[in-house]
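task queued by scheduler; priority normal; single chain, no ligands, no partner chains; default sampling; output format set to structure tokens
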Amino acid sequence: MTKRAVVLFSGGLDSTTCVAMAKAQGFEPVCLAVSYGQRHSVELERAREVARVMGVKDFRVVSIDLRQIGGSALTADIDVPKDRPADEMSHGVPVTYVPARNALFLSLALGLAEVVDATDLYIGVNAVDYSGYPDCRPEFIRSFEAMANLATKAGAEGARFTVHAPLSGMSKADIIREGTRLGVDYGMTHSCYDPDEQGGACGRCDSCMLRKKGFEEAGVPDPTRYAAGARG
């Protein structure tokens, strides 16, 4: 019987690569998307479609409203930073950081894992080409894993949870090369923090710029659909 793994899934480049990697490693992915009030809600539409195309049998969406907390350009009336140079992206924590988001998302994934009898969780955090989020660092992942084994009924009964962050030490170019090798169609994915009403990428936010740089360095044609007038 194929083992299940819960994969946190946004329909973006990184999480889609994680689904492909989990499948390649012999897991049946249970994909969990979170509707948290993000301004880029088009990602949920893409997530559902990508999951379907990738043959995911169990796709779920949990809804929470982090707009009630705010504090981020993704959940509050705060401008998304544009055109930041690479050295600025690699230092400090930008306003697109959503307070405690990955801790919350992993907690939801952990709860689902207990329900579907899975002990493996996948999250597409990256600590090389990223925007400086503290909850993308390997030490956070290991700390959450330790907590998961202490705070759950399954853990108390002897199960051992593993939080997989397979992209953590990879550059965006490395991620794209690996996903391409595994057959990922990145044209279906969405990464932009500030898309237009049709879901076209702005080409200027941190996520768009890191994604574009990744395709260039990987030597893979960029299939991103950009908004009219965006720098693609």
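post-processing summary
- DSSP finds eight helices and five strands in the chain.
- The longest strand covers residues 28-35.
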